[in-house]
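Handover notes (outgoing to incoming on-call)

Open items:
1. Het domain protein: sequence verified, structure written out, both below. Nothing else pending on this one.
2. Nothing else urgent.
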Amino acid sequence: MYLLRAQEVDNTGTLDVELELHVDNIPPYAILSHRWGSPADEPTFKELMCQTAAVKQKKGYRKLLSCCALALEYGLSYVWIDTCCIDKSSSAELSEAINSMYSWYEASNICFAYMEDVPPGDYIMDDRSAFRNSIWFTRGWTLQELIAPNEVLFFDSGWSLRALGSKSTLSELLSSITGIQEEILTHREKLHTASVAQKMCWASRRQTTRVEDEAYSLMGIFGVSMPTIYGEGRKAFLRLQEEIMKGSADHTIFAWDSDEDHEYQGMLAKSPQSFRQSGHFTSMSYNEFADRYYSENADLQPYYTMTNFGLQIQLPIVSMSPHFEGYYFSFLAAFHEDRSVIIFLRQRDDRPAGHFFRTHFNGLRVSADPCPN
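Het domain protein structure tokens:
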């Protein structure tokens, strides 16, 4: 990985900054979490490698210097910043960096979160504070940048040496803003203890500039890797879900809803926004699922996989006939608090027997009520 190396020039207060490549024996480093400005304002990898005079006039260069100066205050000579430590002219290097980014934030000694829209003196505990309403909390990439590091320090627009607070001291407030459990934020509980639906819910109100980044920004949170293909659009999120299913039996990946009024849909969601109301869905062990919904001698197949006909999965299905002809509901291995979770299905005459589609019933595609009216 490339790191910025910062050092003070002859005790003048002036900083000298240069990029260094580190393959093995990565030195201790600070890492920056921030909202990008205009691309024209941010220093690039090429500009820093060439040390052009123009780069020092950019607004983002002042942010870079402030971050490096702060790192030195914390005894760290190296800094990683996403705007300039990735050679984005190389698609292979960009893909490797995106797949590695969660681990880089996780391995950092400290993360500085720069809140450019939070003025000095902001009272962050006020419900209307600039901190609570910062755009930093609405960006897709900053989700993993909040979760992965052991510690995050928050700084206002003036880069005050006294931080607004830290992830550990502000965990209750951060949880209320983001919906992420305090135990996950502070690493008292492992990230894998949260269900797929809960993680998707955390991302559901966040935005990315590129639609593909809705998926790419979540790879580290779900512990998966996949090639980045800018231009594939919504297919990226479908690929993400397929990768998650390869290593997880968590049925809450199917516990999503949608405002779209299509009669027939597949089992996978089109975007994280479909999980906006899914934060309370938790996973049920397959043994408990089998005990609840199958007879003792049932031939159970707990695995599921994507095929050329769609998702192949074994679920208990209940017909809603004769009151609602052609409608079915199916139980998932999931809980909503202490209630069962069901999805609604329909069959189509033009498909083989046993082939079902997701559908909506009374405006819902997923419900925690096993007896819908």
